[in-house]
Design brief:
17 strands, Zincin-like, mainly beta, metalloaminopeptidase activity, three-stranded antiparallel sheet, Aminopeptidase_N-like_N_sf, 8% helix, zinc ion binding, peptide binding
Length: 220
């Protein structure tokens, strides 16, 4: 599968009634082709299998993968984490088969500090508040509804302190514009155009927008 700037710490493959835990020497990285290979000592049985992967990744400061940006208010620096996976950079955030022709459903679960907004493709399904594991702050874990079948480059999530304005399309889709709080008054034009574009393309292609909401995020 594809992986770049990812360190796998544990990989378990469950198939049939058995499972394989891959040793460190069985996890091979092909950086040239942006792949990670899991080498087994035994042939795998035919049929469905479940692959569980634990890994560490990097939040970079460039404009691809899962990256960070910042804004400053009253001398205080605020950080935003966001994604840009097109055309093939989901592999920088999590191991996956990062090819547009391959599709899957994605169930996102994100943990962050309680005062952050957490956005993804789908609406939140459940939010649990709890103590942060590495500090005395309060955290939240947000579980999102599963996505439709889609390519990995369409996965998106954003974490930060935002304000938003919203409207509704002709077909009832909620459209929101998000930005840092002191810039949200500049978002009305984007909201108006976003709703008009969504209405137009649904009519032009005769294909309904498949999600319940559309978020447009102004990342500084």
């Amino acid at each position: 599968m594809n992986a770049l700037d990812i360190q796998i710490t544990k990989a378990i493959l469950s198939a049939g009634v058995g499972s394989i835990t891959f040793r460190e020497d069985q996890i091979l990285y092909d950086e040239e082709h942006e792949l990670v290979l899991l080498k087994s000592d035994h042939l795998l049985p035919l049929g469905e299998a479940l692959l569980e992967v634990h890994f560490n990744g990097k939040i970079n400061s460039q404009l691809f993968g899962f990256y960070r940006s910042k804004w400053i208010k009253d001398g205080v620096t605020h950080w935003i984490g966001t994604t840009q996976f097109q055309p093939a950079d989901a592999r920088r955030a999590f191991p996956c088969w990062d090819e547009p022709a391959l599709k899957a459903t994605f169930s996102m679960k994100i943990t962050t500090e309680q005062d952050n907004n957490v956005l993804s493709n789908m609406e939140p399904q459940e939010t649990i508040f709890h103590n942060c594991p590495d500090s005395d702050k309060q955290c939240q874990t947000v579980q999102f509804h599963p996505s439709p079948l889609m390519s990995s480059y369409l996965v998106a999530y954003t974490i930060g302190k935002f304000s938003f304005i919203e409207g509704v399309s002709e077909q009832g889709t909620i459209v929101r514009v998000w930005s840092v709080p002191d810039k949200i008054h500049l978002g009305h034009f984007s909201l108006d155009i976003g709703i008009k574009f969504l209405n137009f393309f649904e009519t032009y292609f005769n294909i309904p927008y498949p999600l319940s909401k559309l978020d447009m995020i102004a990342v500084p």
